[in-house]
Amino acid sequence: MENNVSDKMINSCKMTDLTVEEMLTTERPIHRIILHCTADKEGVDNTVEKIRKYHVEHNKWEDIGYHYVVYRDGSIHVGRPVRKVGAHCVDGNNNQGSIGISYVGGLDTKGKAKDTRTPGQKEALYRLVHDLLLIYPSSDVRCHNEFANKACPSFQIGTFLDEYGQWKAEHPDPLPAEEPEEPVAEVAEESVVENTNDTVDNNVKQDIANEEQGASFFEKLLSFLKSLFQPKAK
Ligand SMILES: [Zn+2]
Q1: Which of 27, 124, 195, 207 has a 20 to 30 Å separation from 4 between CA atoms?
Q2: Catalytic residue positions, numbered
Q3: Is 212 in the same domain as 123?
C-alpha cells in the first residue's frame, strides 16, 4: 500500500476527527478526488442527514452519494464511508476509484450557479484535500464539471488549484524528521553538562596533582637542605 502517513502529519492540517486508519481504505484503490456542490442556494444550510434522505428516497441510492460534505461553517462531515464506491460522478465511470467531496451551496438566491463558498468552507476544502492527498498521493483533484455538462461545483478546477497552491505555500507540510531530533538534542545537552563537570573535576584533580607535586618538590628540597646542615656521621 502506498500509505505511510502518520496521524501526527494528518493532525497538523485535518479538520475531521478521523484518524488516518479511518480515512484510509485498502478495499478499493483511490486515484481521484472530485469536488462538488450540493446545489443549495446561497446562505441556506444543509446536512448529511437531509442529503442522505434525499439520495436514498428520491434517487433510490443505498446511501448519500458523497464521501464528505463541507458545511457553511467550515465543518467537515463524513457521508458514505470511503471504502464504499460513491454516487457522485457517474460520467466517465468516475465513481470508481474516486472520493466525492461536496460543499453546501453552489447557487445564488435565484438558483443560478455561483461559487458561494464561505471562507470557512474554502479552508476546510484545502485541508481535506491536503489530508486526502497525503493518504492517497497518486490522486488528482478534479471538478464534476470536467466530466459532466454541469456547472457543479460552480467554480473551475484551475481556480481551486491556484487557491490550493497558495494555501499550501502558507502551510508547509510538517517535517516527519522532527520527532527523533528532540531526544538527540537532549542527550547532547546532557553530555555537554557531563563534559563540563568532567572538565571541572579534571581541573581540580590537576590542581591537586600539581599541589602534591609541588609539595613533594619542596619536601625533597627541604630534606636536601637539612641533609647539608646535618652533621655527617663519622
Ligand atoms: Zn457534482
Answers
A1: 124
A2: 36, 66, 144, 150, 152
A3: no
In 3D space, the residue among 32, 135, 49, 137 whose CA is nearest the CA of residue 92 turns out to be 32
Cα–ligand 1 centroid distance for 144 (angstroms)? 5
State the sign of the Cα–Cα–Cα–Cα dihedral 165, 133, 89, 100: negative
Lowest mean pLDDT among 3-17, 43-57, 84-98, 172-186: 172-186
Do 91 and 158 fall within a single domain? Answer: yes
Q: Are 88 and 134 in contact (CB under 8 A)?
A: no
| Domain stop point among 135, 170, 205 | 170
CA of 107 to the centre of ligand 1 (A): 12
Same domain assignment for residues 118 and 45: yes
Q: 146 CA distance to ligand 1 centroid (A)?
A: 10
| CB 70 within 8 Å of CB 125 | yes
Q: Are 74 and 120 in contact (CB under 8 A)?
A: yes
Same domain, residue pair 210 and 122: no
Residue 161 sits in a domain of what CATH number?
Answer: 3.40.80.10
